[in-house]
Amino acid sequence: MKLRLAVAASALAISLATAGASSAAVITADLTANGASGGLNVGSPYGTVTVNDLGGTLAFTVDLTDGLVFRNAPDKNHWSFGFDLNVATGSIGSIGDNGAGTFTVQTAPDNFSPFGTFNYVLECDSCSTGYNAASPTQLTFTVTAPTTLTVNSIVANGSGYYFAADVADSNGSTGNVAALGFKTPGVPEPATWAMMLMGFGGLGAVLRTQRRRQALSVA
């Protein structure tokens, strides 16, 4: 019986480990730091960055808060979006947006005043320098590298910020906004819960069998 209990416990441990490995990691970060010198006419957060771990490839979605759009600044201190990785060989691809914008990868590092520099940078080349209702409010892209990327590959820049974006509001105010950290990760997927329950179920079955045998031996 002790052997069966040990086997069941081992099965549970394997189930939990497998479940954790199969869970698609998703992290989110709010753009809460405001670097616009004249302020913005919308409140914080100014947008949300969502990163999905697709098994070695990272998929980014940047959603700006209603009332804000991406812009193309006429200077070298503002860029549409920036982030950092713990590898220098990442490649950005599959770039898309929801407006009349064309995003391209820039030669980095580039400055996002007052939030420091980032090594991975995109710019909306066809966006206006100020507010334009046709400019995109969402940016999507993927990142790959010769080594396997995970959400843990995303790191803060030298000033402590994880992401930054250059935005404009409907009043014409412009500036960079940034994220200082991540929000709580999402809950496990249904398949993850299923494997965990299978492991607990197996252990429970062994314990019930043990109780029945003990009851019979007493009788």
What distinguishing features does this structure have?
single chain; 219 residues; alpha+beta; Immunoglobulin-like; 2 domains; eight-stranded antiparallel beta sheet; five-stranded antiparallel beta sheet; 2 helices; 15 strands; elongated
Question: How many discrete domains?
Answer: 2
Fraction of residues in helix: 10-25%
Largest sheet: 8 strands, antiparallel
- The helix-and-strand class reads alpha+beta
Amount of beta strand:
25-35%
End-to-end distance: 19 Å
Any idea of the CATH topology of the largest domain? Immunoglobulin-like
Q: What is the CATH architecture assignment of the largest domain? A: Sandwich
Low-pLDDT residue intervals, each spanning 5 or more residues = 5-9, 11-23
- The geometry reads as elongated
Specify the CATH class of the largest domain: Mainly Beta
Radius of gyration: 24 Å
* Total helical segments: 2
Mean of residue pLDDT values: 84
